[in-house]
Design goal:
The chain has a 6-stranded mixed beta sheet with strand order 1-2-3-4-6-9, with helices on both faces. The chain has a 3-stranded mixed beta sheet with strand order 5-7-8. It is globular, with a radius of gyration of 19 Å. It has 2 domains: 197 residues, 2-enoyl-CoA Hydratase, Chain A, domain 1 (Alpha-Beta Complex); 51 residues. Helix 1 runs parallel beside helix 3 and helix 9 packs antiparallel against helix 10. Helices cover 51% and strands 15% of the residues. The longest helix is centred in the middle third of the chain and has 21 residues.
Length: 256
């Protein structure tokens, strides 16, 4: 597929999905969702993938739905938006279940579907100047991109409803306090911090970070007993891997 709304590359085990339509502030339209879904399918079929970065060019991460695109398709808008969500949700689901950590680098405003994209990530780093707003109900819409799934689990149902229904604009620090992003860094060191964190995730021994991601995801829906079984099988499998055994042997050697 020829990419027009995003830049996509895979090198050294790291996939980079970069929203790259600054003229529209990386607004979500049909083409955007098609390209995102295609990029995620490529990630899913790439052996040896270690980490995925979602970033953006320009001054904003993504303002969410492209209202001009909606109006251009108003004669068949329900079908048009449904097609968009099918693509978008294919991407969200794929990233959620993939045994690879997903890092979101939020360089500016994340609104609507852009905010949903951030919530889906396993770890989000935001510039201190970044802002967040759901913006759906302000336009007479309801959420997509898994917002109602992820947000409720992160902040609880009442706070989630407040954010979705009343659309307060959050600063990066406020978003971090609520647990919506993991880290907030000063703008001037943002890119360096993102790259440092991305490399750390990619270099996780034996893919342990990716395996841990899946366990955390499962923990949101399973029982304690189911989670204990998953953890037991997981750590036993990881412990027996040659790479892990070599690291354990090295650790013991250093202690002698």
């Amino acid at each position: 597929m020829e990419f027009q709304r995003i830049r996509f590359s895979i090198a050294d085990g790291i996939a980079r999905i970069v929203l790259d339509d600054p003229a529209t502030h990386n607004a979500v339209d049909l083409r955007w969702t098609q390209e995102i879904a295609h990029a995620v399918r490529c990630c899913d079929s790439t052996p040896g993938l270690k980490a995925i970065l979602i970033a953006a060019t320009g001054k904003m991460f993504s303002v969410g739905g492209n209202i001009n695109d909606f109006m251009a398709n108003r004669d068949h808008l329900q079908r048009h938006v449904r097609e968009m969500t099918v693509n978008f949700h294919t991407a969200i689901s794929g990233l959620h279940r993939m045994p690879v950590p997903v890092l979101a680098a939020v360089n500016g405003m994340a609104a609507g579907g852009g905010f949903s994209f951030v919530l889906m990530s396993d770890l989000a780093i935001a510039k201190r100047s970044a802002k967040f707003n759901f913006a759906y109900t302000r336009s007479g819409l309801t959420p997509d991109g898994g917002a109602t799934f992820f947000l409720t689990r992160l902040v609880g149902p009442q706070r989630a409803f407040d954010l979705l229904a009343l659309n307060p604009t959050l600063t990066a620090d406020e978003a971090q306090q609520l647990g919506l992003v993991a880290r907030v860094v000063d703008d001037e060191v943002f890119e360096a911090e993102v790259e440092k964190t991305l490399q750390a995730l990619a270099n996780s021994p034996s893919g342990a970070a990716g395996r841990g991601k899946l366990q955390l995801r499962q923990a949101m829906s399973g029982t304690l007993e189911e989670q204990l079984e998953i953890e037991g099988r997981g750590i036993a499998e990881m412990a027996a891997r040659p790479e892990t055994l070599a690291m354990l042997e090295s650790f013991l050697a250093k202690k002698k």
